[in-house]
């Protein structure tokens, strides 16, 4: 990758992004405890996930692309926090970056766009679960006003060990 600064653009995700988004997510399934999924997905299997994030409403998908190439550098989503109706003013947010896109401000741009898109929605809180350790994600969330509200200890088992998940919340 070149060291020159690439212009990053953020836009709503569309169906033609599905292959690239699936590739990014599968990297984290295979290589990290960041997601507790343990089997990779095909784009067809991920299609319902993509379609659950329309261009409007509280459940959004924002995609960051690299300037001229339009290569997808990462994505951010807001999704239902829990399925019961009383939770509808809460969302769970997350970011996944291409393996070579970290440390370049892409996550910051994605969250700025996501929270701007959500500003006029009837939402009260955003939540983020961060598998530990993940200092970069903790710093990003704290920069956006998230505060730590608790940690589920050894809540998930992957790669033959147990992982904690720290939970963060933000007023919307």
Automatic annotation (TrEMBL):
Supply the PROSITE patterns for this chain.
Answer: GNAT
Under the heading Gene3D superfamilies, the entry gives: 3.40.630.30
**Which stretches make up the N-acetyltransferase domain?**
8-172
Q: Which UniProt keywords apply?
A: Acyltransferase, Transferase
Protein's name in the database: GNAT family N-acetyltransferase
